[in-house]
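Practice problem 4.
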C-alpha cells in the first residue's frame, strides 16, 4: 500500500527527492563553511565525519531506495559499515603523525 509520499512501485515522490537533495546541499554548505573555520583538528574531524555519515545515510536511504527495502537487507550492510569505520580508525593515526611531522 502506498502513502502520499511514495509511488505504488516503491519509488519516492518529487517532493521527497527535492527535500533530500536540498538537505544534502545544505549539509555540504555547512561542511564547506567548517572547512574555512579555524577549529581544533579533533573537533573539525568529528564534525565533518558526523556530517558525512548523515549525508551517506540520506543517500543510501532515499537514492539507493534502502528505506523501502526489508529490514534484513539493511542489516546485512551493517558489517560493511563497521568494517569501513574500523579501517578509517586504522588510517587516522598515520595521517595525524604525518601532519605533526610537517609542523615540526
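Answer key:
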Amino acid at each position: 500500500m502506498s502513502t502520499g509520499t511514495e509511488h505504488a512501485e516503491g519509488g519516492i515522490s518529487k517532493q521527497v527527492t527535492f527535500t533530500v537533495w536540498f538537505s544534502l546541499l545544505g549539509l555540504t554548505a555547512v561542511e564547506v563553511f567548517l572547512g574555512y573555520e579555524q577549529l581544533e583538528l579533533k573537533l573539525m574531524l568529528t564534525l565533518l565525519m558526523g556530517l558525512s555519515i548523515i549525508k551517506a545515510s540520506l543517500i543510501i536511504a532515499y537514492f539507493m531506495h534502502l528505506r523501502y527495502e526489508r529490514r534484513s537487507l539493511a542489516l546485512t550492510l551493517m558489517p560493511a559499515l563497521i568494517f569501513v569505520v574500523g579501517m578509517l580508525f586504522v588510517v587516522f593515526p598515520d595521517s595525524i603523525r604525518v601532519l605533526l611531522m610537517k609542523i615540526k
